[in-house]
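My current task is to audit a protein record that another person submitted. I need someone to confirm that the token line plausibly describes how this chain folds. Take the sequence as given and treat only the tokens as open to question. This is what I was given:
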Amino acid sequence: MLSHTYCFYEEVGLDNGAKEKRSVAGFCVSCSNVATKLISKVTRNRINRKIPYGKQRDHYPAVMIGQLTIFDGYSGRGLGDDLLDFIKYWLVVENQNVASRYVIVDAVNKPKVLDFYIRNGFSFAFPDINMEREYVGVSANENLRTRFMLCDLMPIRQAIYC
């Protein structure tokens, strides 16, 4: 009960006439938050600037994407971008169970992964990697395995409902 996992399948016809479901893509999500006191001042100000003063908080509701995968045989087709678009739309329009302003990820700290999330509207919660190292308690000579990133859902909501 810590997260919900969703999977997309493709129904494929077999030589014998039977049909088989093949996993195409999947993701899991869980409730979380963006704690503004714990992130960099630059990011905190960027977040709070978009919120009316009387509604500014120490924590903003978020949904964390814990896993995001495109299964073997389906990668290289842009499905990751489509999957993130689906998740963001689903959170704004379809998933009325949980209110969330942000989608957050702990992205694997590899250029290809980070570029993928940046291309899809995510930004670093800590603009400087050393600030993030300090926050997670990793020394300067150690590798930071993940980077905390977030995406504001408000522009998506405004584009849909305005």
In short: Strands lie at 4-13, 19-35, 59-70, 102-108, 123-124, 146-152. The chain has a mean pLDDT of 89. The chain has five helices and six strands.
